[in-house]
Write a structure and sequence with these properties.
Structural class: alpha+beta
Oligomer: single chain
Mean pLDDT: 93
Strand order of the largest sheet: 1-2-3-5-4
Order of helices and strands: HEEEHEEHHEEHHHHEEEEHHHH
Radius of gyration: 20 Å
Number of strands: 11
Length: about 350
């Protein structure tokens, strides 16, 4: 059955936009901002030339969900460290924690947890209009280098903060505990599920399913216990960094903010920033090589299973997801070896 998603129009967003802007500005236009998979992002254009961004969380906006399933689908359990990082509560908790840590995120203009203005959770945030760091690196690497250095400073501020337990910021900062026994166990459980999901969708993984699972278990077993949990973004690539007019980095897609092993952050940074990664790694930072090896394989397996599962649905840019799955599948095969 063809899935039909109903995205929002100007008339839908006008009450939310008015509440955020006040009585002296009227909503003149709306455009949907592409890129995300779990929430809708809409640019609100006002009649005085100013803009803002509305984030909306609903099944219609989440490409991991079937919009026809309606309210019968259970919400993700935030106490599961790697449950889907989506929702207003996670966003607001992450925004507040980043702000307290001195790390820039788009400024909150309005929070609507009671659904007064839309039949879905929504917030309105500042519109950061300087483009993404990914675009800046592609356009002029030399000019973008100082911005990468500023981002490195933001990362040092982020990673200087620790939590008493591991898990999503919304859980830990509320004094609650996450499910599971350790960071490593949480990633191991998820990686083994990802192996099974990927094996069902790609024959190359299917043939090596047992060998990949065994390698994941062996790498996890080599990791020594640790009790320090660092504040990390969790999925920080140059596309998740917007720039202000003066080149200040602003972190977005922050719902996955969590306290965890810092190595989990670094394997993703190394993947997404490539040759720029060394500028982001703090001088003298010692990372656990066993954790890096384990998290690296688990990450690549996740980046095969996730995109392939997204392709089961109606994601509007399938070629993008296929490319991500394919490149990470080849890395899994390299890491597991013959």
């Amino acid at each position: 059955m063809t899935r039909i998603r109903q995205h929002l129009a100007l008339s839908d967003l006008a009450p939310l936009a008015a509440a955020a802007a006040g009585p002296h500005r009227a909503l003149a236009g709306v455009s949907r901002v592409h890129g995300g998979t779990k929430k809708g992002s809409y640019r609100l254009a006002y009649d005085d030339g100013s803009t803002a961004i509305a984030y909306v969380w609903s099944p219609q906006e989440n490409y991991w969900d079937d919009p026809e399933a309606g309210a019968g689908v259970a919400a993700p359990d935030p106490r599961a460290p790697f449950s889907p990082a989506t929702g207003l509560d996670l966003f607001v908790a992450a925004h507040d924690r980043l702000t307290a840590a001195g790390v820039r995120a788009p400024r909150l203009l309005l929070v609507d947890p009671d659904r007064r203005y839309l039949p879905a959770d929504a917030v309105v945030v500042e519109d950061v209009r300087g483009g993404s760091l990914e675009e800046a690196l592609d356009r002029d690497p030399a000019a973008a280098a100082p911005i990468v250095d500023r981002l490195a400073g933001q990362l040092r501020a982020l990673h200087a903060h620790a939590g008493p337990r591991y898990g999503k910021v919304a859980v830990v900062d509320a004094g609650l505990s996450s499910h599971g026994t350790s960071c490593v166990q949480a990633v191991l459980d998820g990686a083994l599920r990802d192996v099974e999901e990927a094996a069902r969708r790609d024959a190359r993984i299917g043939v090596l399913r047992e060998a990949i699972a065994e390698r994941v278990r062996d790498l996890a077993a080599a990791v020594e216990p640790r009790s320090r949990y660092t504040l990390i973004h969790g999925e920080l690539g140059p596309d998740h960094v917007l720039l202000t007019a003066d080149g200040e980095p602003v972190l977005i897609d922050v719902e996955g903010l969590m306290y965890f092993d810092v190595e989990h952050e670094h394997v993703f940074l190394a993947l997404r920033f490539g040759e720029w990664y060394d500028r982001l790694r703090a001088p003298g930072l010692e990372l656990d090589e066993d954790r890096l090896a384990f998290y690296r394989l688990a990450m690549h397996v996740s980046l095969v299973a996730g995109p392939l599962r997204l392709l089961d649905g109606d994601f509007p840019r399938p070629a993008e997801m296929r490319a991500i799955a394919e490149s990470n599948l080849l890395r899994v095969l390299e890491l597991v070896g013959p």
